From TrEMBL:
It comes from Anopheles maculatus. This is Cadherin domain-containing protein. It is found in: Membrane. One of its GO terms (biological process) is epithelium development. GO terms for molecular function: calcium ion binding.
Length: 252
């Protein structure tokens, strides 16, 4: 009697296919980022999938793998709200699939996750109050101070325009809306006004209805210079002095 025994071996590692969204809007209620299908070209138990896991790229547990009702199909779920400012580069999820072969074989795939920005951050001045002095002899368009503003968002949500919204009723100063440089706009006169407190607003260029704003104070001291000649109270003055008065006698 001849017996032909065929023993199967685990020849192939699983194949992983990921169909995912191009990006996820941060702080959104997105539940499923992608669908993963895992197959194995082996037969029998060697071709069965034991597990699919995220093994790298998600240290804080923002994602999780969940099997569906279909064999070899899984979904990548968003488990926690995502913040683009915390992870500006997004995530690179390393998935590992393991089959039930003996010995088991495993394979890996890296799935990038890009986070799309929403306008959830207001512009921030590097100071709440700026203090600066400028000589009253400064001509118009003299640079006074540069106001620095940052915004943690990206794209147009991070583009900031500045505007003087208070304390500049006479139009003595102007600000470049993009660079934040503050300039004198007219000749200043410390004898007329020696101190200004400007309110400068910064507003981002997000979509209407989502724009965010912040403000800062700029205190400007106009320094007096010797720009006025002495003036007699009267143009002509007649003084009478008795003769023989000693030196040092007051005559007025």
């Amino acid at each position: 009697m001849n017996l032909n025994l065929f023993a199967t071996v685990n020849l192939f590692a699983p194949d992983i296919y990921v169909q995912a969204l191009p990006d996820i809007l941060e702080n959104s209620n997105t539940n499923i980022f992608g669908i993963v299908r895992v197959t194995d070209k082996d037969k029998g138990v060697h071709g069965q999938i034991k597990s699919l896991d995220i093994v790298d790229g998600d240290p804080d547990g923002h994602f999780r793998i969940k099997p569906t009702d279909r064999p070899g199909e899984y979904v990548i779920e968003v488990h926690r709200l995502l913040d683009r400012e915390t992870a500006p580069a997004g995530y690179n999820l390393t998935l590992r699939a393991v089959d039930r072969g003996v010995p088991p074989k495993q394979s890996y795939i890296v799935t990038p996750v890009r986070l799309a920005d929403i306008n959830d951050n207001a512009p921030v001045f590097n100071r709440e109050i700026y203090e600066v002095s400028v000589p009253e002899t400064s001509p118009p368009n003299t640079p006074v101070i540069r106001l620095k503003v940052t915004d943690r968002d990206e794209g147009k949500n991070a583009k900031v325009f500045l505007e003087i919204v208070g304390g500049n009723e006479g139009g003595e100063f102007r600000v470049n809306p993009e660079t934040g440089m503050l300039y004198t706009a007219v000749p200043l006169d410390a004898e007329l006004k020696a101190f200004y407190t400007l309110t400068v607003s910064a507003i981002d260029q997000g979509n209407p209805g989502t724009r965010k704003q912040s403000s800062a104070k700029v205190k400007i001291n106009v320094q007096d210079t010797n720009d006025n000649d002495p003036i007699f109270e009267t143009a002509n003055l007649t003084i009478y002095v008795d003769e023989n008065e000693p030196a040092g006698t007051s005559v007025t």
